[in-house]
């Protein structure tokens, strides 16, 4: 990094002068006076800066639309990006209020009237949001949001000595996250992992190396877009220079991201810039450049315990090793867990396990034994015979043994071989409880004295003893069978409950209230048995299952039970008793999507957008984030349910494998529902997740237009089939016809056009032209540019 001697006192004086001159010009921006209020649901939820580049007010959380954040955000980017927030650890609900009170206090109160946030400064006659994104309270002393940054710095902002940036917990969760950037009073600029919930700092994973440079060292992000560190002696350490990206042409921000990387971004303002860079935030600088290779002394590292970090597209991505899966696939940094029972130390199970060889992966910390001058085979046997050993590393005649949990996993040219202990194919099922193992050992230990008695006693005594032994063995095996039955209730290793048929019969009052039916069977409303609160459930009775499908039913329930996502209907448990095959789900009080879309009143555009994006996220989870990919095969509005907050939940996922091959089919013999069926069902080709993408595209058009896919009674043949008509409208530039008189949708023309283009890409006749659901999400969220789609029935060179 280059050094440039400048006057540190001059910089501080300039910043002071800028602050002092704000009141003289503030009248231009004074659009929040005493008595002014903002509320989450209107009539006024936010107000913009004079240029409209920024806005300040309430924003609903993506993870829960009923919770709101008081924030500042870029108002002209897509998506709108939050750069400051007041209540990240304590979101508020509808009924909350921000007010500049009559005594000059800027106060945020929740729906019960309790104060959540107050800057705590003197009386302010007015406040203003400047075009720099800085919120100013003209009180005595002046308060500004630039002085209390959260996770982002903007041009014109500084990080003063003793101040920190904290990452968010997740992109959609603004509570304090796992990383901090500290401008320390010893003169050093340092990135730390944070121990949650205590919030203490672990050892640094990156530092500028300027410790001892003085207590007045400051991180500066100047108005030209240069990010540098000014030392107390006036020396300047350049972090990055972005002067090639002018203020007139680009927005800029420097954010400590949720993955611990301090990133400088640019976003083009002009159409020519968007054509070159894309309508998105682009990375200028990453600090550090590869966070995966920076282990910490304590904690799990960048990724969670038992996982390892891979640098992908300049960002860290967490992965699980063989035979491990994520504890929570929506929060991969929580780490991985083994999908099998660990080797027990009570009996010798070394023959039941084997070592899988892995290259290019290492967990550098946590060795508990180290052998030198050993052969590879010795290293393997030393781990296999050690019940505590879960991983062994062999490198250059040396052997290291490690046990769970593993930390700071990384990939790269680590050298040597890594051995992961996993059960052999026939040993991947849970072991009997320890008590049964103890009984088996006890029975084996009593065989010898019993045999001695048999050989030495009389025939009559032998007969009695034989009878007694058979009785003991019978009782023992019966007892073991009962224990096995009890074990089955937890063998799935999931938070699922096994219900008896009688329990569900009582819970549904004899299956009296039917709320739905389909090819799978019928759904009944009930109350969760044994719950302290009256938790409503949907009890789904399946019929016409494959014969001899008990094991498959359990395995499929295991697959469904391992899914956990806010856009999937939650499975509480199941019944597998006699001929009864029943699934117990949470009850969705707002019914299915058709009643939402095709009712007497058209739902708002914003609600439809949120529903569509929720469905896309749920499908992406099923396709890409589950341990075993789940293809739904019957995506349609009837299988999308809405909870009390109108959050979309996909239902009936995983049922396809449970039903007969002729179920979930139309009269044409094609799996799915007429109108949503992908063309490849009609061909003798392999079915992939792209069939769900096609169905989603059809349904996305229905959500956009609030009309059914096929309306033969429409009277206009050109409009009868929605997929054909939608492409015609797009090609002719007549998107207003698709949404009718929906002024709200027309006012959001850029998003409307994006959604229509995404839908057309999804319904391409050629599966390879359709994007993956992961790509669909990125396009809907504006993270990637959506190119012009071809006619859905044509072929083209593009492949997703």
- In the CATH scheme, the class of the largest domain would be Mainly Alpha
Structural class by helix and strand composition? alpha+beta
Estimate the global geometry from the Cα principal axes.
globular
Helicity level: 10-25%
Q: Biggest β-sheet: count, sense, barrel?
A: 6 strands, mixed
The proportion of strand residues reads 25-35%
Radius of gyration: 31 Å
CATH homologous superfamily grouping of the largest domain:
Transferase(Phosphotransferase) domain 1
The average pLDDT is 80
In total, how many beta strands?
46
CATH topology of the largest domain: Transferase(Phosphotransferase), domain 1
Q: How far apart are the termini?
A: 40 Å
Q: What is the second-level CATH architecture of the largest domain? A: Orthogonal Bundle
The tally of helices reads 15
Weakly predicted, low-confidence segments = 1-30, 426-458, 476-493, 660-670, 795-800
Question: Numbering strands along the chain, what is their spatial order in the largest sheet?
Answer: 39-43-44-42-41-40
Domains (count): 6
How would you describe this structure to a colleague?
This protein has 800 residues and is of the alpha+beta class. It has a 6-stranded mixed β-sheet with strand order 39-43-44-42-41-40, with helices on both faces. Helices cover 24% and strands 26% of the residues. Helix 4 (434-456) runs antiparallel to helix 5 (459-488). Residues 1-30, 426-458, 476-493, 660-670 and 795-800 have low confidence and may be disordered. It folds into 6 domains: 1-19 and 149-289, Agglutinin, subunit A, CATH 2.90.10; 31-146, Bulb-type lectin domain (Agglutinin, subunit A); 308-426, 3-Layer(bba) Sandwich (Hepatocyte Growth Factor), CATH 3.50.4.10; 434-488; 497-586, 2-Layer Sandwich (Phosphorylase Kinase, domain 1), CATH 3.30.200; 593-780, Transferase(Phosphotransferase) domain 1 (Transferase(Phosphotransferase), domain 1, Orthogonal Bundle), CATH 1.10.510.10. The longest helix has 30 residues, at 459-488.
């Amino acid at each position: 990094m280059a050094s440039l001697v400048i006057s540190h006192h001059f910089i501080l004086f300039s910043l002071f002068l800028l602050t002092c001159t704000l009141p003289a010009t503030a009248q231009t921006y004074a659009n929040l006076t005493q008595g002014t209020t903002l509320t989450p649901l209107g009539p006024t939820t936010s107000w913009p800066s004079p240029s409209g580049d920024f806005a300040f007010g309430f924003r609903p959380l993506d993870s829960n639309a009923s919770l709101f954040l008081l924030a500042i955000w870029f108002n002209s980017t897509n998506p709108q990006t939050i750069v400051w927030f007041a209540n990240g650890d304590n979101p508020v609900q509808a009924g909350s209020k921000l007010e500049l009170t009559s005594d000059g206090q800027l106060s945020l109160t929740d729906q019960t009237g309790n104060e959540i946030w107050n800057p705590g400064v003197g009386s302010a006659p007015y406040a203003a949001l400047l075009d720099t994104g800085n919120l100013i309270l003209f009180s005595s002393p002046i308060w500004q949001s630039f002085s209390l940054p959260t996770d982002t710095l903007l041009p014109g902002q500084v990080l003063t000595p003793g101040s920190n940036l904290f990452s968010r917990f997740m992109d959609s969760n603004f509570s304090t996250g796992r990383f901090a950037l500290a401008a320390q009073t010893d003169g050093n600029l340092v990135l730390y992992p944070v121990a949650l919930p205590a919030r203490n700092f672990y050892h640094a994973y990156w530092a500028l190396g300027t410790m001892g440079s003085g207590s007045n060292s400051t991180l500066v992000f100047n108005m030209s877009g240069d990010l540098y560190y000014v030392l107390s002696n006036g020396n300047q350490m350049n972090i990055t220079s972005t002067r090639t990206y002018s203020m007139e042409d680009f927005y800029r921000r420097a954010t400590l991201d949720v993955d611990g990387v301090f990133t400088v971004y640019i976003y083009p303002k002009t159409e020519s810039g968007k054509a070159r860079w894309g309508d998105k935030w682009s990375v200028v600088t990453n600090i550090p450049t590869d966070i995966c290779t920076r282990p910490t002394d304590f904690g799990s590292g960048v990724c969670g315990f038992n996982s390892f970090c891979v640098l992908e597209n300049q960002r860290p991505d967490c992965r699980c090793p063989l035979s491990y899966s994520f504890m929570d696939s929506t929060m991969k940094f929580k780490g991985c867990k083994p999908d099998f029972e660990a080797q027990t130390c009570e009996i010798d199970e070394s023959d039941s396990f084997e070592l899988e060889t892995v290259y290019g992966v290492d967990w550098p910390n946590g060795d508990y034994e180290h052998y030198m001058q050993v052969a590879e085979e010795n290293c393997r046997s030393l781990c296999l015979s050690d019940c505590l050993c879960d991983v062994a590393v062999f490198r250059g005649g040396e052997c290291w043994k490690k046990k769970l949990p593993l930390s700071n996993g990384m990939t790269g040219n680590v050298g040597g071989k890594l051995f992961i202990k996993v059960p052999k194919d026939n040993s991947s099922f849970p072991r009997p409880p320890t008590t049964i193992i103890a009984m088996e050992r006890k029975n084996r230990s009593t065989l010898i004295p019993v045999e001695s008695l048999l050989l030495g006693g009389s025939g009559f005594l032998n007969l009695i003893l034989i009878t007694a032994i058979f009785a003991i063995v019978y009782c023992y095996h019966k007892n073991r069978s009962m224990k096995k039955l009890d074990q089955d209730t937890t063998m799935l290793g999931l938070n699922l409950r096994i219900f008896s048929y009688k329990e569900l019969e009582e819970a549904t009052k004899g299956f009296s209230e039917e709320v739905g039916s389909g090819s799978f069977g019928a759904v009944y409303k009930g109350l969760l048995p044994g719950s302290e609160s009256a938790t409503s459930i949907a009890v789904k009775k399946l019929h016409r299952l494959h014969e001899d499908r008990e094991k498959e039913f359990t395995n499929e329930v295991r697959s469904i039970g391992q899914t956990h996502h806010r856009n999937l209907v939650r499975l509480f448990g199941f019944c597998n008793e006699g001929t009864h095959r029943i699934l117990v789900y949470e009850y969705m009080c707002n019914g299915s999507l058709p009643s939402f879309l095709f009712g007497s009143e058209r739902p708002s555009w914003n609600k439809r957008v949120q529903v569509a994006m929720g469905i896309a996220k749920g499908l992406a989870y099923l396709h890409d984030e589950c341990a075993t990919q789940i293809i739904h095969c019957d995506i349609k509005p009837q299988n999308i349910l809405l909870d009390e907050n109108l959050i979309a939940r996909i239902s009936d996922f995983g049922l396809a494998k449970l039903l007969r091959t002729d179920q979930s089919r139309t009269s044409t013999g094609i799996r799915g529902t007429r109108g949503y069926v992908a063309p490849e069902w009609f061909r003798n080709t392999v079915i992939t997740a792209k069939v769900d993408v096609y169905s989603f595209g059809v349904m996305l058009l229905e959500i956009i237009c609030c009309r059914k896919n096929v309306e033969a009674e429409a009277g206009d043949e050109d409009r009868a089939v929605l997929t054909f008509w939608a492409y015609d409208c797009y090609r002719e530039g007549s998107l207003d016809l698709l949404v009718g008189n929906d002024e709200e949708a027309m006012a959001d023309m850029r998003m409307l056009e994006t959604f229509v283009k995404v839908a057309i890409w999804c319904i391409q006749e050629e599966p390879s032209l359709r994007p993956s659901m992961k790509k669909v999400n990125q396009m809907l969220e504006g993270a990637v540019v959506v190119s012009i789609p071809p006619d859905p029935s044509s072929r083209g060179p593009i492949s997703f």
